């Protein structure tokens, strides 16, 4: 009999999969009310109210799985759970339809001035001519970020007779064709769109993605929506562009700081806003509860779960073998992802060396997870990484080789994109850590640090010195630098690490060096 603590309010129908199981005992109490029973609890289900801290886990020695009935897991100490071997699951796609419908409702309300007209009518006014709206039919909708939610919005826009153009650097040509959308670079999408809606994850690259510079390239009279993450739109720049009349209006469900009480955007008549309601429907709340309840039941039945946030539970012996390579492959996947800003067709990984004498499938899943974490607006993990790859039409292959090129272990990754390929080889050296030893055919040796800059350039005197001078002139301190080349005067690379992330401005300054042929900022 498994004892499951339901610590937050979840409706009985959401717990259906568990309440119907004969080997499950549900305890619907808060953590405080169940204080005397915590040492017997096998699983805990929470929403956002309960904080699952390391201290709480220490009071629950039998705890095997934590389930969050929702997407965000900020209230759960993931590293502590992983260290304890506790699986953490959530419901990453339970609110897809809810958010898509809310975005569309916001779009229609924005274009037809519905909130403003209703407020006017409530005030005893009858100003029909003041609220003349604009039809959605025949308008061009620009979707920035084309994951699950973006795809659902595109389906609805098509029904409304809209033209749909999308920007997603990781969208393959095949998927765009299947969804009947036109894939464009961001600088081509913005001038064409009548309405722009953003649906990307919030990362260092997407923070402030739509700013004053980008908005000035849009049509005068463009409408802008953000029902994804606060911070993707630069709020100060958006305010300025609305006040100046370049942006006709905006619909916002999210803000950088919430609640946004007293926010200057809320003072504008052509801005409508809701208090982060994208996932707030009865159906979405029920869906996420049912999903995590099913996940917990699946786990206790001894089957793999499909929405684990952290490392799935494995035997101690296998875990000890896997652990040295686990972070290495995630870092390799992340480096490849950040260097390949295009649609991906194929990912293949090759394992060689005696120290990799175990089932490497978990490493492949971890690598693919690292590859996708900054590319999709969903929780990615070792369990669902291959499914995400399949959904996006990406072929994943795994090989075992006898040739480790003299290393005790060697992991090699090859990523094939729509226009080019990238290769990375890495190894783990005991007492020395993870090393990247080959990048795009260039022999090199560097530790995958948190903040990296990868530069490919023509091998000419002064290039390295010029890069160092530009960084020095802007008071950027280089922590390490590694270089590699195939032959004198040909192509060469350099990989630099820094104590803190480089600004996008620095990348622009470095691009002025004409010998540089490719550059990528990498954050691990």
Automatic annotation (TrEMBL):
EC number(s) from the headed UniProt entry: 1.1.1.95
Catalysed reactions, as listed in the record: (2R)-3-phosphoglycerate + NAD(+) = 3-phosphooxypyruvate + NADH + H(+); (R)-2-hydroxyglutarate + NAD(+) = 2-oxoglutarate + NADH + H(+)
GO molecular function, one term: phosphoglycerate dehydrogenase activity
Pathway: Amino-acid biosynthesis; L-serine biosynthesis; L-serine from 3-phospho-D-glycerate: step 1/3
CDD domains recorded: ACT_3PGDH-xct, PGDH_4
This protein's UniProt keywords: Amino-acid biosynthesis, NAD, Oxidoreductase, Serine biosynthesis
Cross-referenced Pfam families: 2-Hacid_dh, 2-Hacid_dh_C, ACT, PGDH_inter
PANTHER family named among the record's database cross-references: D-ISOMER SPECIFIC 2-HYDROXYACID DEHYDROGENASE FAMILY PROTEIN (AFU_ORTHOLOGUE AFUA_6G10090)
Protein family (similarity comment): Belongs to the D-isomer specific 2-hydroxyacid dehydrogenase family.
This protein's name: D-3-phosphoglycerate dehydrogenase
Taxonomic classification: Bacteria, Bacillati, Bacillota, Bacilli, Bacillales
């Amino acid at each position: 009999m498994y004892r499951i603590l339901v610590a937050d309010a979840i409706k009985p129908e959401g717990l259906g999969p568990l309440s119907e199981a004969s080997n499950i005992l549900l305890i619907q109490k808060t953590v405080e009310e169940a204080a005397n029973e915590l040492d017997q609890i096998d699983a805990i289900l929470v929403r956002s109210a309960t904080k699952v801290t390391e201290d709480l886990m220490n009071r629950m020695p039998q705890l095997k799985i934590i389930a969050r009935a929702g997407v965000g897991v900020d209230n759960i100490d993931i590293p502590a759970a992983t260290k304890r071997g506790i699986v953490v699951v959530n419901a990453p796609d339970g609110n897809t339809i809810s958010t898509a419908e809310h975005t569309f409702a916001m779009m229609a309300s924005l274009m037809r001035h519905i909130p403003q007209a209703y407020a006017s009518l409530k005030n005893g006014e009858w100003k029909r001519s003041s609220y003349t709206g604009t039809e959605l039919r025949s308008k061009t909708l620009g979707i920035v970020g084309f994951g699950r939610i973006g795809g659902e919005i595109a389906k609805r826009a098509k029904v409304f007779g809209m033209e749909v153009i999308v920007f997603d650097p990781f969208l393959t040509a095949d998927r765009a064709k299947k969804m009947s959308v036109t894939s464009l670079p961001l600088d081509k999408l913005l001038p064409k769109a009548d309405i722009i809606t953003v649906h990307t994850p919030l990362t260092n690259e997407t923070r402030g993605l739509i700013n004053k510079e980008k908005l000035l390239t849009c049509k005068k009279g463009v409408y802008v929506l953000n029902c994804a993450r606060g911070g993707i739109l630069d709020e100060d720049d958006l305010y300025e562009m609305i006040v100046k009349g370049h942006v006709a209006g905006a619909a916002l469900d999210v803000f950088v700081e919430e609640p946004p009480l007293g926010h200057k955007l809320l003072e504008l008549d052509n801005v409508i806003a809701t208090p982060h309601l994208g996932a707030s429907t009865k159906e979405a709340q029920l869906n996420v509860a049912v999903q995590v309840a099913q996940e917990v039941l699946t786990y206790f039945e001894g089957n793999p779960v499909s929405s684990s946030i952290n490392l799935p539970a494995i035997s101690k012996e296998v875990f000890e073998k896997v652990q040295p390579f686990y972070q290495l492959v995630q870092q390799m996947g992340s480096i490849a992802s950040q260097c390949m800003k295009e649609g991906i067709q194929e990912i293949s990984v090759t394992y060689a060396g005696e120290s990799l004498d175990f089932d490497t499938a978990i490493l492949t899943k971890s690598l693919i997870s690292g590859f996708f974490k900054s590319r999709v607006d969903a929780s990615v993990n070792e369990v669902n990484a291959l499914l995400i790859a399949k959904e996006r039409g990406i072929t994943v292959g795994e090989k075992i080789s006898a040739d480790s090129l003299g290393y005790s272990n060697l992991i090699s990754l090859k990523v094939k994109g729509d226009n080019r390929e990238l290769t990375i080889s890495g190894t783990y050296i005991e007492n020395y850590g993870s090393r990247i030893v080959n990048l795009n055919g260039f022999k090199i040796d560097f530790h995958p640090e948190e903040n990296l800059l990868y530069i490919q350039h023509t091998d000419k005197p002064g290039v390295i010195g010029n890069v160092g001078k530009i960084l020095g002139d802007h008071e950027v301190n280089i922590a390490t630098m590694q270089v590699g080349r195939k032959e004198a005067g040909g192509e060469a690379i350099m990989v630099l690490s820094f104590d803190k992330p480089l600004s996008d401005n620095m990348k622009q300054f470095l691009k002025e060096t004409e010998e540089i042929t490719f550059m990528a900022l990498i954050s691990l």
